[in-house]
Amino acid sequence: MSVAxxxxxxxxxxxxxxxERPLRFVVPVAAGGGxxxxxxxxxxxLGKALGQQIVIDNRAGGGGTVGASIVATSPPDGYTLIVxxxxxxxxxxxxxxxxPFDPVRDFAPISLVAxxxxxxxxxxxxxxxxxxxxxxxxxxxxxxxxYASAGVGVSSHPALELLKTMTGIDLVHxxxxxxGPATTExxxxxxxxxxxxxxxxxPHIRTNRVRALATTxxxxxxxxxxxxxxxxxxxxxxxxxxxxxxxxxxxxxKAIVTRLNxxxxxxxxxxxxxxxxxxxGVEAVHSTPDELAAFVRSEVVKWAKVVKASGMKxx
Length: 315
Known about the structure:
The chain is 42% helix and 20% strand. The chain is an alpha/beta fold and 315 residues long. The chain has two domains: 182 residues, D-Maltodextrin-Binding Protein, domain 2 (3-Layer(aba) Sandwich), CATH 3.40.190; 99 residues, 3-Layer(aba) Sandwich (D-Maltodextrin-Binding Protein, domain 2), CATH 3.40.190. Strands 1, 2, 3, 4, 5, 6, 7, 8, 9 and 10 form a ten-stranded mixed beta sheet that branches. Helix 1 runs antiparallel to helix 9 and helix 4 packs across helix 11. The longest helix is centred in the C-terminal third of the chain and has 22 residues. The protein starts with a helix and ends in a 5-residue tail after the last helix.
């Protein structure tokens, strides 16, 4: 018996090993887009490491609240997990008055998985090449420029609401059920602006189907080194990073959490997986369960202040 299996025998039940059947990754967004991509890139090697298939279950809706609620109320047996994000575990508590789960109390943290910047892009038909030009264009046409988001409360929504607040422009919010559908509509010209994960937009930036104006991290992204940051583009203090992390329902046995953390860390340290994530605009990161718990608590506090100061509201 392996050490890893021995660690989880008692937690899974007498005479049973964990895992003994397929696991489910609840991905709280529609298929397509950066969140879904990261989840799939991690699920396959993690499943191999655990000796079981990991089934992707896309449950979009409510800015990620639908999927998060499913996991929060699932049996704490290690078979239903969520690839959560800044949206589900940090932004939504500030944006929704009655959230059906608590991001700290109702989940057992496993590990951070990845980080990446958002990137502000426009449809090529929009006659702007910089953030300053976009702001000037929108200011001259209040209520006439629309922006797509992956849903109310998803990071692509607050990012542009924050830009509106900081620059005084009036953009029309058009929410979709996921970054995939939103990106499709942007490419088709049904909306003009979007600010979402670099992972989901990178292929379209490279093929010139969208025009990148700026990234939202503190430093330029190595995947698009010629694209300036929002701060460099004349919006001081604008920084909105995206993170993804793996969680189980609260009360999941510590031995199972430890096993999952051990295996996901190995996956994220794999040069092959790190490179695949990097090529898609994502940086692989990992943490201990305690580090993730502390990080989530700090993010909840941070975004509560940002949302209150900016006046952002759920539509």
